[in-house]
Fold this protein.
Amino acid sequence: MTDPTLSRRALMGAAAAALVSASPVSLAAKSTLLRVSTPAVADDWHAKMWTVLKEQLDKQAAGQFEVQINLNGSLFKQGAEAVALARGNLELASISAFDIAKVVPAFSLFTAGYMLRDPAHLMAVLGGPIGAELYKEVSAKMDITVLSPLYLGTRELNLRQKREVKTPADLKGLKLRMPSTKEWLFLGNALGATATPLAFGEVYLGLKTGTIDAQDNPLPTTKSAKFYEVTQQITLTHHLVDSLFIVVSNKLWNSLDAAGQQQLKNAAVAAANYNNTQRITDEKNLLAYFESQGMRVTAPDVAPFRTAVQAAYAGSDMAKQWPAGLAERVAAVR
Ligand code: KDO
């Protein structure tokens, strides 16, 4: 006959053993926090792509990462992400060529109007050997690693009031909102307008109240940030095929083993691909939507804009800092 006391003891012992053997597992399972900061609004594709990254990591590396997504510049304001990453206060962000150009001047080449031709060209240049070369300097100087470039969209003019716009001269005196760095302002002025600095989060109100006359963004952003509600015209200048870069702080990157790095990189590439596909589709369909909302869409000949903008860059201090032959190598990429 079995002694009931003994079997109870045996049971308790087994339970304790199970607990002991369970604890190292749960300790080891402590996940790595990945804080994301973006100025993007929830409805924009480069906000939604972070959920793709999160889901991809949950699938590939269950329990290993905790992705915390902060939208609308709620964690760090637009343009402050690179410094936060370098200081270890942030792990992931999508920053622009304009942000990188402040530290790595070669990147101002990708802020120049009419330099990249289309999304495929952008991805071939920035996702190929030219990108890879430049990202080494980004890592060394900014303490961040580029995981993937992405297509933010082609920037178009969006005017508060209807206006004939055929050449840069027609933009004279127009207060065109641009983000607040000198490279952005240069682009706005090169188009013929009066570039006026304003943070992304203030653009809607600026258009509504008339402190600015126009803004430029890719069509999907003009839709998701609802700028079409407070403007009357879209003018298709196609002046910048714009990029962003999904980046991770080197502090976090270097703390991962090779498998963790690969999982994070795969998830970033999946997020970028998702963004690119959705955005390119949207760009094809949105003009009809804007017209249905009563907006005027105009498509001037872009040649006079291209000529003026390219001449402005060619004579600029920025162009003097572009590595010799880089612009030609970029143009030669098919
Ligand atoms: C903008 O402020 O117009 C801009 O499009 C600039 C981009 O570099 C990027 O910061 C973007 O805003 C935000 O992600 C919001 O869409």
In short: The longest strand covers residues 233-249. The pocket of KDO is lined by residues 38-40, 44, 46, 78, 96, 179, 200, 217, 221 (CB under 6 Å). Strands lie at 32-37, 65-70, 92-96, 144-159, 175-178, 194-197, 214-218, 233-249, 296-298.
